[in-house]
Fold this sequence. Notes:
Helices cover 22% and strands 25% of the residues. Strand 11 and strand 12 (185-189) form a beta hairpin. The protein is of the alpha/beta class.
Amino acid sequence: MRIENYLGFPTGLTGSELAGRAILQANKFGVHLSVPSRVCGIGFENNYTLVHLDGGETVTAKCLLIASGADYRRLDVDGCERFEGAGVYYAATPAEGKMCSGSDVIVVGGGNSAGQAAVFLAMHARRVLMLIRGDDLYKNMSSYLVHRIEQTPNIELICNTTIRRLNGETHVQSADLANSKTGEERTVEVQGVFSFIGADPRTGWLPSEIERDTKGFVRTGPDVVQSPAWQARRYQPFLLETSRPGVFAAGDVRSGSVKRVASAVGEGSMAVQFVHERLKHM
Length: 282
């Protein structure tokens, strides 16, 4: 809930604060924000990209930047879907923190998002059980965050463990856990389960002309040099350019990107320069 590794903010800031400042800054420079216009697909006509909106409108552009991010993965656990919003959550905000005040909760995941959620929830919950499938929290999490977790007395790290089933009537009341190494199973009483097990890219709306990797993330730069659209051209794609000339991708949606806020902001800044350079050849 608090970004603590973003340059220039030594005390950290929340995602909503960063987004709010970004909107104000964009407005200052004359950016037109069309909300809530939803893109349902894109097409191509000559050297132009046609962006189709769900209201029936079409926006025509010479260049397009795809920065649609990713969606959180759902827990594949018996009873999970039934309790979504009633004990199963995919974000740890002050609202969830209040609901779990004084009770035990589970955080599933071993990445930075899971670590940040655990530290935040520890300020509200009596105890936070942090479940990871492996046995090393340092593998996928920033060391500063691991140190914070180790120094928080009411966070308990449980390795090699997954949830088998969630139990309750109208709200989560307990979870059945299983250790993959020992085979031991046990049931713990909890009021909340917070899932941070990765994300899937929001690329289902993209046409086949925009190549993606096996996980659905958009390929760019060196990965698309052999694409048909580029073989017919005399110049090479820029680092953030996709298999379609003039179409770029930045942030979490891009294949091979570093899944961090600072990296996404940096790629967005780079893309602006690449767009200007590409327009010179169009």
